[in-house]
Amino acid sequence: MTQTKDNVNPSEIEKFSAMASQWWDTEGNFKTLHQINPLRLNLVDKTVSLSGKDVLDVGCGGGILSESMALKGANVTGIDLGKELLDVADLHSLDSGVSVNYQHISVEALASQKPEQFDCVTCMEMLEHVPDPVAIINACSTLVKPGGYVFLSTLNRNPKAYLLSIIGAEYILGMMPKGTHDYASFIKPSELALWARQAGLTLEDSRGIEYNPFNKSFSMSDDISVNYICVFKKTV
């Protein structure tokens, strides 16, 4: 790994690394990631037409989104600071036969090495787990080519998001382990849009992901009050 002052919360890395072996268990702790992955993938592919594109997946974890984008024909690089997670991603890639270039490096370090090298950068459910999300956004902007797209997903900071994503999802429905999220680290869409604009990114679209507890399914919607994805285009 490139030596740099990494923008990382060690306890967050340890938390997810401890569950690394369960990453590809579609009924395990990461079941929700598997369920919402098709929604994210479709949004990315619809926006950039992934086939033949050079794509970077920041905070790739065990590679769920990375592999699915590679299956669409993209040349995918996945980066994470959780070594155990990358080991799982590499092993699954070997088993599935889906080629992804996984690297144990921070996004800031990669940005200093490969500015404007990617057609598309994705960073899903990571910003709320790092000490300095602004630095992550700046690095993503540096890495994407002019005219390219950056996809950022996170959780809104409001009472509804707290009730649904922490009390509901973690403590009542058990959709993810207790303690997965820290409400204080949630990010309002207005904050995300401001930080992105300051990094030279223009907001093109924003979509919410909603959960229906009756049929236990997720869908994309216009409601960004809880879990949301923003699509940005590099304009400078």
TrEMBL record:
Pathway: Cofactor biosynthesis; ubiquinone biosynthesis. Keywords: Methyltransferase, S-adenosyl-L-methionine, Transferase, Ubiquinone biosynthesis. It catalyses: a 3-demethylubiquinol + S-adenosyl-L-methionine = a ubiquinol + S-adenosyl-L-homocysteine + H(+); a 3-(all-trans-polyprenyl)benzene-1,2-diol + S-adenosyl-L-methionine = a 2-methoxy-6-(all-trans-polyprenyl)phenol + S-adenosyl-L-homocysteine + H(+). InterPro entries: SAM-dependent_MTases_sf (IPR029063), UbiG_MeTrfase (IPR010233). It comes from the Bacteria. GO terms for molecular function: 2-polyprenyl-6-hydroxyphenol methylase activity; 3-demethylubiquinol 3-O-methyltransferase activity; polyprenyldihydroxybenzoate methyltransferase activity. One of its GO terms (biological process) is methylation. Belongs to the methyltransferase superfamily. UbiG/COQ3 family. NCBIfam families: UbiG (TIGR01983). This is Ubiquinone biosynthesis O-methyltransferase. It comes from Cycloclasticus pugetii. The gene is ubiG.
